[in-house]
């Protein structure tokens, strides 16, 4: 039985690699093969046909699309992300610091959201059906059902307009000292934490409830184990796999949330860079940012699946 | 060929207990549907007309929801915005679910290589974050209402495919499917007359959830300025154009947010409170 786990994980990783290939094709196809000729976009409507033809040749746009795709993906593997159309800087240089900023934001949110969400999720599962559980459930449904920018605007209204604890939207880049840090990160992190926690609470609550419905927990109940012993000793160890799985899946929500949050709070991260690149139609920059997001998402989902395989005792 | 005898009285089959929360949620959805349909005749002022000397005016008689950043009537803009938000999302969810469910049932019934290739392809498409997908398409072809509808439906087809395929695979193992196959029925009959009636409840519930996702994504894109373009405005675009009023809590920025929230929360609550019979009919047929 033991040999099955490595082969299952290997299989999962192979699928992830295949998915990444299809995804990169989709990203390339969506951005550079759709109507709208790149050379015409760059030179504007009034460009002469000769100028457009010249630029097309210089940018290798006259080669077959599949060849350009292979060149592009080869470049990605060597770390050559191309040159930005908008300001002729290498894409890698533009992304570098921005990626670090986004990772900081995501990391900070994770540190706050995971303990908060697991506590709420597990306790509401323990007190299933009580007022506490109903409040938590309704609140999570509410947060999940609204767009991120509504959470962000509500947070601004609450903390900046009514309570006046934090400045509203006009955040500057200087993060000096503890107060400065707090000012830059507080609003984005609060907004992201709400979204991520809501997903995580929902999934971890469901995972614990599923374990609480098993025969061995009923057995423990019948032998007279206390409520906390029931959950902590009998249910939780078995729900751990699904919970960690839920954590990884909820974190993938960060990828969508971060696009809105960085834009609304003017945070200098990859997502903001990409939204700006969309308005200038800077395709190489868009493609690289999109690949970063897709790889991040794929890593989280694959990690969730691998954890689910590892934590299944039937496969050990 | 169905497993149900035809003589079962309709009343007992439809004897669902209606839950008060579900009823309230349903009324809210109905309200927005009526607003979207009759927005033209309900709006007190033309959407583009500047009627207030002040911008971000407060709520008062005659201007029930205040005025926006140019002094236009917010109530009229919300009513007309409902048409874009609900209309575009409804069109997109219809296309997404129709194609997803037909392909999903086909994959389940045909099986083999077709099933594997389609599942792998749709799973891969599903692993592109939805907002990112929207951003890329808008970057490549620009934003217009047909592009938005098509993009949103492409983004949510894989989910509908995956969901309906999983349900259809269960039905496909039933005896009546084998009987139908032996009888020599063709694919359209198999998926339309044998599979679909048995999965229609959960598929409709899934359609509702997907509608919520589409409303969220559409509003998000419009909020980023990449969705519905001026002079038209859906609710997301209304929040965007009035975001300057946030610092002094203008109704112009709060009300469209509330409008989105009431619609999406109501749909989620309605689906959560649907009778178990409708939601999981395939699980215990």
TrEMBL record, chain A:
<keyword id="KW-0812">Transmembrane</keyword>
<comment type="similarity">
    <text>Belongs to the binding-protein-dependent transport system permease family.</text>
</comment>
<feature type="transmembrane region" description="Helical">
    <location>
        <begin position="12"/>
        <end position="30"/>
    </location>
</feature>
<feature type="transmembrane region" description="Helical">
    <location>
        <begin position="285"/>
        <end position="310"/>
    </location>
</feature>
<feature type="transmembrane region" description="Helical">
    <location>
        <begin position="135"/>
        <end position="163"/>
    </location>
</feature>
<feature type="transmembrane region" description="Helical">
    <location>
        <begin position="243"/>
        <end position="265"/>
    </location>
</feature>
<dbReference type="InterPro" id="IPR035906">
    <property type="entry name" value="MetI-like_sf"/>
</dbReference>
<protein>
    <submittedName>
        <fullName>ABC transporter permease</fullName>
    </submittedName>
</protein>
<feature type="transmembrane region" description="Helical">
    <location>
        <begin position="105"/>
        <end position="123"/>
    </location>
</feature>
<dbReference type="InterPro" id="IPR045621">
    <property type="entry name" value="BPD_transp_1_N"/>
</dbReference>
<dbReference type="Pfam" id="PF00528">
    <property type="entry name" value="BPD_transp_1"/>
</dbReference>
<keyword id="KW-0472">Membrane</keyword>
<keyword id="KW-1133">Transmembrane helix</keyword>
<feature type="domain" description="ABC transmembrane type-1">
    <location>
        <begin position="99"/>
        <end position="304"/>
    </location>
</feature>
<dbReference type="Pfam" id="PF19300">
    <property type="entry name" value="BPD_transp_1_N"/>
</dbReference>
<keyword id="KW-0813">Transport</keyword>
<feature type="transmembrane region" description="Helical">
    <location>
        <begin position="175"/>
        <end position="196"/>
    </location>
</feature>
<keyword id="KW-1003">Cell membrane</keyword>
<dbReference type="InterPro" id="IPR000515">
    <property type="entry name" value="MetI-like"/>
</dbReference>
From TrEMBL, chain B:
<comment type="similarity">
    <text>Belongs to the binding-protein-dependent transport system permease family.</text>
</comment>
<keyword id="KW-0472">Membrane</keyword>
<feature type="transmembrane region" description="Helical">
    <location>
        <begin position="20"/>
        <end position="39"/>
    </location>
</feature>
<protein>
    <submittedName>
        <fullName>ABC transporter permease</fullName>
    </submittedName>
</protein>
<keyword id="KW-0813">Transport</keyword>
<keyword id="KW-0812">Transmembrane</keyword>
<feature type="domain" description="ABC transmembrane type-1">
    <location>
        <begin position="82"/>
        <end position="271"/>
    </location>
</feature>
<feature type="transmembrane region" description="Helical">
    <location>
        <begin position="207"/>
        <end position="228"/>
    </location>
</feature>
<dbReference type="InterPro" id="IPR000515">
    <property type="entry name" value="MetI-like"/>
</dbReference>
<keyword id="KW-1133">Transmembrane helix</keyword>
<dbReference type="InterPro" id="IPR050366">
    <property type="entry name" value="BP-dependent_transpt_permease"/>
</dbReference>
<feature type="transmembrane region" description="Helical">
    <location>
        <begin position="248"/>
        <end position="271"/>
    </location>
</feature>
<feature type="transmembrane region" description="Helical">
    <location>
        <begin position="84"/>
        <end position="112"/>
    </location>
</feature>
<feature type="transmembrane region" description="Helical">
    <location>
        <begin position="132"/>
        <end position="156"/>
    </location>
</feature>
<keyword id="KW-1003">Cell membrane</keyword>
<dbReference type="Pfam" id="PF00528">
    <property type="entry name" value="BPD_transp_1"/>
</dbReference>
<dbReference type="InterPro" id="IPR035906">
    <property type="entry name" value="MetI-like_sf"/>
</dbReference>
């Amino acid at each position: 039985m033991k040999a099955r786990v490595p082969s299952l994980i290997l299989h999962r990783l192979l699928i992830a690699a295949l998915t990444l290939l299809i995804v990169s094709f989709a990203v390339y196809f969506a951005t550079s093969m759709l109507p709208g000729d790149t050379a015409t976009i760059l030179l504007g409507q009034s460009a002469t046909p000769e100028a457009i033809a010249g630029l097309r040749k210089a940018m290798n746009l006259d080669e077959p699309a599949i060849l350009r795709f292979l060149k592009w993906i080869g470049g990605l593997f060597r770390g050559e992300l191309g040159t930005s159309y908008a300001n002729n800087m290498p894409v890698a240089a533009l992304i570098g610091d921005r990626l670090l900023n986004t990772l900081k934001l995501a990391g900070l949110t994770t540190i706050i959201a995971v303990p908060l969400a697991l506590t709420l999720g597990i306790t509401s599962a323990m007190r299933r059906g009580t007022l506490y559980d109903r409040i938590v459930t309704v609140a999570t449904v509410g947060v999940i059902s609204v767009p991120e920018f509504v959470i962000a605007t509500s947070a601004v209204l609450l903390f900046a307009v009514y309570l006046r604890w934090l400045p509203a939207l006009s955040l500057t880049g200087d993060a000096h000292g503890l107060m400065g840090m707090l000012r830059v990160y507080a609003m984005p992190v609060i907004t992201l934490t709400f979204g991520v926690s809501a997903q995580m609470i929902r999934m971890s609550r469901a995972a614990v409830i599923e374990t609480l419905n098993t025969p061995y927990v009923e057995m423990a109940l019948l032998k007279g184990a206390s409520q906390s012993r029931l959950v902590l000793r009998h249910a939780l160890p078995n729900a751990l796999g699904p919970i960690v799985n839920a954590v990884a899946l909820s974190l993938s929500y960060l990828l969508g949330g971060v696009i809105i949050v960085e834009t609304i709070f003017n945070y200098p991260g990859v997502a903001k860079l990409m939204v700006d690149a969309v308005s200038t139609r800077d395709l190489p920059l868009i493609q690289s940012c999109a690949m970063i997001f897709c790889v991040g998402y794929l890593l989280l989902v694959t990690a969730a699946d691998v954890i689910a395989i590892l934590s299944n005792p039937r496969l050990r | 060929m169905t497993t149900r005898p035809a003589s079962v009285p309709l009343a007992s089959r439809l004897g669902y207990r209606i839950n008060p929360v579900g009823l309230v949620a349903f009324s809210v959805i109905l309200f927005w549907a009526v607003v979207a349909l009759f927005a033209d005749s309900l709006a007190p002022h033309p959407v583009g007309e500047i009627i207030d000397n002040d911008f971000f005016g407060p709520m008062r008689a005659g201007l029930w929801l205040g005025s926006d950043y140019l002094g236009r009537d917010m109530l009229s803009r919300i009513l007309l915005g409902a048409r874009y938000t609900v209309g575009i999302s409804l069109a997109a969810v219809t296309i997404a679910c129709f194609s997803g469910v037909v392909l999903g049932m086909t994959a389940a019934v045909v099986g083999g290589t077709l099933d594997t290739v389609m599942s792998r392809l749709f799973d891969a498409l599903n692993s592109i974050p939805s907002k990112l997908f929207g951003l890329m398409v808008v970057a490549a072809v620009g934003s217009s209402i047909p592009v938005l509808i098509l993009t949103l439906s492409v983004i949510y087809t894989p989910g509908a495919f995956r969901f309906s395929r999983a349900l259809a695979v269960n039905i496909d193992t039933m005896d009546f499917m084998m009987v139908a196959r032996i009888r020599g029925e063709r694919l359209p009959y198999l998926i339309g007359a044998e599979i679909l009636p048995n999965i229609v409840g959960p598929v409709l519930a899934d359609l509702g959830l997907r509608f919520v996702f589409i409303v969220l994504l559409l509003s998000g894109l419009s909020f980023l300025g990449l969705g519905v373009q001026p002079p038209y405005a859906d609710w997301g675009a209304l929040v965007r154009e009035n975001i300057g009023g946030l610092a002094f809590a203008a109704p112009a920025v709060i009300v469209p947010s509330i409008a989105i929230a009431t619609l999406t929360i109501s749909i989620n609550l309605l689906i959560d409170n649907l009778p178990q019979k409708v939601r999981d009919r395939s699980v215990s047929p």
